[in-house]
Amino acid sequence: QAEDGIRDKGMGLEFRRVLFRSTASGKALMQAMKDSESEVRLQAIIGLGKIRYEGALDALLEKFPQGGREGEEAANSIAKMGAKGVKTLLAELPKVSPGLRRYIGAAVANACHASADQAAIELLTDTDPGMVEGTASAIAASMETRSASQVKSIAKVVGELAKKPGISRATNQAVTRLLSTMDDPSGSKALWDRIGPNHPPEVRARSEE
Length: 209
Known about the structure:
Layout: H1 2-7, H2 13-19, H3 22-32, H4 38-50, H5 57-63, H6 68-79, H7 82-90, H8 98-110, H9 114-123, H10 129-142, H11 148-162, H12 169-181, H13 185-193, H14 201-207
């Protein structure tokens, strides 16, 4: 019956009911991940992230390397499952292709919880400039959906990263870009501190965009 609710074309009310049946809904959504219809599978993957059903971690992790929209949403759902989900994703970084690594960066940056934010900041120091840029873009995009306290939290950790010596040029640029998007006093101060002559010209130029 639960899967019939997911299959319903409207997916509206019945799908929302399914999402909030804790363990029962988690098992139903995991079953729906095996459906022959791609839209049903996709909605099931997204739903598992919404209810943060940790019992699906292994199944989502198997789905992630397949890439595509389902792989991307699998990463997003894993990242929403608190510290355990973030740790699971980060463990995949050395094992997967650059494209999938960037899925991980974006998923962690969009999860908007403390463990994810800390991990996202660490990914801003990655040696792959593509990972740094992708993670920064995802953090910037998440600003529209973050609460004031979540903005304050991410602004604080980005500001702390900005003070670290020896960070790469890509990280410098990403940090400056992020600080310019944050409507928070600590972010504004950290940004102002970065426009002095001691920073590379492209970083100062970025802060003025």
